[in-house]
What does this fold into?
Amino acid sequence: MKSATLLSSLAIVWCLAGMRSAPAGISVPACSPDTATAKRFQDWLGFYATAPAADSEATKWRGIIKLPAVAKSQIVRVTASSTCSAARTAYAKLPGLAPETSLSVIVVKAGTTYFVVDPTQMSGEYKLAAGFDSRWRNLSSFTF
It folds into this structure.
């Protein structure tokens, strides 16, 4: 097996095993292959983005994480490698996360705001997530 193929295979196994960071010398893809977490994250953001103004708890949470009130059709997963790379770089600057090359992120765009999570970056039982503007400036950090 060629060295590059072996490293790619190890990176995939690392992602599937849910390790907190990749073994030394192994870089993982910028876009996470975890479709189950991506769907949960997208649905979770969709719930809060579309909650009616009368739902004070949802509206409060939406304000805390800087989630715009948008239609569900405007909550979309982004899988372009260039976007995932930019998101991973911005996300890696947050305190307490694994090194950038160990992160494989899920990116969901809500209106003009990007929300990023790496399924392996946890705080207790919750995943660490963040919101960013279109210039990758951090707007919020939260768990989901």
User: Anything to note?
Assistant: Confidence is low (pLDDT under 50) at residues 1-20. The longest helix spans residues 3-17. DSSP finds four helices and five strands in the chain.
